[in-house]
Amino acid sequence: MGRVDFGDGPTPVLVDRGIVHDMSAVAPTVSALVEAGHLVPEGGRPVGELADLAIGATDTPALLSPIDLQCVKAAGVTFAVSALERVIEERARGDYRKAAEVRGRLEEALGGNIRSVEPGSPQAAQLKQALIDDGMWSQYLEVAIGPDAEIFTKSPVLSTVGWNAPIGIRSDSTWNNPEPEVVLLAGHDGRAVGATLGNDVNLRDFEGRSALLLSKAKDNNASCSIGPLVRLFDERFTMDDVHAAEVALRIEGTDGYVLDGTSSMREISRDPEQLLAQSLSEHHYPDGFVLFLGTLFAPTQDRDEPGRGFTHKEGDVVTISSPRLGTLVNTVTTSAAAPAWTLGIGGLMHNLARRGLLAA
């Protein structure tokens, strides 16, 4: 499932055995298709083979982010390594020059225990008390091993970008990184219908200065990419495949820099279905939601000067891939230089009305 712009506006599509089906006659949005439970191509109009569309070229249809009216939620610090890095950012107050010292002190205090701790368990409570006694407790460790997960809103409805689109880093950020993640697509009832890939772009300097700057660290123009398509669950692809997913990351800079990393969903500290339940909570998302499940990847390799670690440069090509979910590719620019987000909810409704897709 996904969205393609054939020239007149966003169109929901289903891809079955390589054939793209325009589903706009069945439902005007991806959200409406999910809520109707219409996850098969019957009623759609075949428009050609996915491979033949040459998607992304200037004179051909553009592959958009595969979601539209869903809320965009994200789970934070769901992996031990990412939890440690968030604490490091906090203790270093967003200053990359202090990160190495803090990392060593924290790893010594934990002794590797965090990887084996079940969040919310008595063992987690004991570790928390020990860290409090050592003066090393953090709000990030609370959401890493406490009973409640960190669930936040990543970006506004309709603001996400898709395959081959530029991704944006704030121009005033000096310490940042990609976050390759598996993303679940759920209906209004919180039940997942499929999965895709995402880049939860993160500004380590902003969030490190204060957790209250999370929205500035996470929600910026073009700062959230999803795609290329949502793989729908069926007898060949289930939540078990999400649990076993391996996500690869490759960053290639115009300066010749190359970084490779992997994130294994087997190491996640909270079950994805528990994260879905905590996201839904007592709330109701009438158009459904997507949930970023978090990442194991937290780059610490030096890119330039020793001790600085990794940060993006304009022109970096970020490739996120997983065998069952495909490949998501984006090129880094600043949020100021990235194409402005202009098609909001009102604009989409006007577009659908003009195309006669709201008559039903």
UniProtKB/TrEMBL annotation:
Entry superkingdom: Bacteria
UniProt-recorded Gene Ontology molecular function terms: hydrolase activity
Keyword set, alphabetical order: Hydrolase, Metal-binding
Entry-linked Gene3D superfamilies: Fumarylacetoacetase-like, C-terminal domain (3.90.850.10)
Ranges where the Fumarylacetoacetase-like C-terminal domain occurs: 150-332
UniProt record similarity statement: Belongs to the FAH family.
Record's protein name: Fumarylacetoacetate hydrolase family protein
